């Protein structure tokens, strides 16, 4: 499999990358000219029509807050999911661009850009919007991963599109995608605040030991779901995944 980067003449306001790697694939994807770039992967074996197969890239962004004090909190499970994907797929997160920590790699033969915005939760769209424009990733291939209080802790839901559900980070992403909501999202259930507990305090709280076990299981299941989505799209397996997730903690 070989990698190719098409660079149309339209210039971009995004600054050049601040770090790189000796990996030739990474150098190809993060070349220094500040031009709007389209990521493609060309298969090494031609199809019957003697044309190389090309794969549309995915931008996979987890929402969260940067900094050690937020690590392991409910509001940062989006970051945790991206970290787990990077670990499983062997993608190194060591590039800084557009207020984000990035990892460039692939899932199977499909190129992916893993993103952890460093602009804090309520402004994460300032990072994701410009990156999607720079790499010319279509809306249908922008996957946003975030925490969801309307779902029980550890329950996942994968959707083709939707609103922001009063999630400030997701709302900011929509605003920086020109108000478009037609992008996939993976929501990770964190439950709701008990009693009259302040919502902000709940979001910035770490999980209990029992909740942590459920989240760790969800992260493993989420990695499999993301891989299926990237390789097969919204197939019947995704529908089955959502159904299983909905009832996975129900006792018979």
From TrEMBL:
Q: Does the keyword Endoplasmic reticulum apply?
A: no
Query: Region Disordered: which residues?
Result: 1-35
| InterPro entries from the UniProt entry | CRS2-like, Pept_tRNA_hydro, Pept_tRNA_hydro_CS, Pept_tRNA_hydro_sf
Coiled coil regions in record: none
Bias (Low complexity) ranges? 1-22
- Tell me one GO molecular function of this protein: peptidyl-tRNA hydrolase activity
The record ties this protein, via SUPFAM superfamilies, to: Peptidyl-tRNA hydrolase-like
Q: Which PROSITE patterns match?
A: PEPT_TRNA_HYDROL_1 (PS01195)
Keyword entries, A-Z: Transit peptide
* Keyword Signal in annotation: no
The family note in this entry says:
Belongs to the PTH family.
- Could you tell me what this protein is called? Chloroplastic group IIB intron splicing facilitator CRS2, chloroplastic
- What gene is behind this protein? LOC100830400
């Amino acid at each position: 499999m070989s990698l190719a980067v098409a660079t149309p003449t339209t210039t971009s306001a995004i600054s050049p990358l601040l770090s790189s790697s000796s990996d030739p694939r990474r150098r190809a994807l993060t070349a220094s000219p500040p031009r709007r770039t389209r990521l493609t992967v060309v298969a090494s074996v031609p199809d019957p029509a003697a044309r190389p197969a090309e794969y549309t890239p995915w931008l996979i962004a987890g929402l969260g807050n940067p900094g050690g004090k937020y690590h392991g909190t409910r509001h940062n499970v989006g970051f945790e999911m991206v970290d787990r994907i990077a670990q499983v797929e062997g993608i190194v997160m060591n590039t800084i661009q557009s207020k984000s920590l990035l990892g460039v790699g692939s899932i199977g033969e499909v190129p992916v850009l893993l993103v952890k915005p460093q602009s804090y939760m309520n402004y994460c769209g300032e990072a994701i919007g410009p990156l999607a424009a720079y790499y010319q990733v279509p809306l249908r291939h922008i996957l946003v991963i975030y925490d969801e209080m309307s779902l029980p802790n550890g329950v996942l839901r994968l959707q083709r599109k939707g609103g922001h559900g009063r999630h400030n980070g997701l709302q900011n992403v929509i605003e920086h995608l020109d108000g478009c909501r037609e992008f996939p999202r993976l929501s990770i259930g964190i439950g709701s605040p008990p009693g009259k507990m302040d919502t902000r305090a709940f979001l910035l709280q770490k999980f209990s030991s029992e909740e942590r076990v459920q989240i760790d299981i969800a992260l493993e299941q989420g990695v499999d779901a993301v891989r299926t989505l990237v390789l097969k799209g919204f197939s019947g397996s995704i529908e089955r995944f959502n159904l299983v997730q909905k009832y996975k903690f129900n006792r018979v």
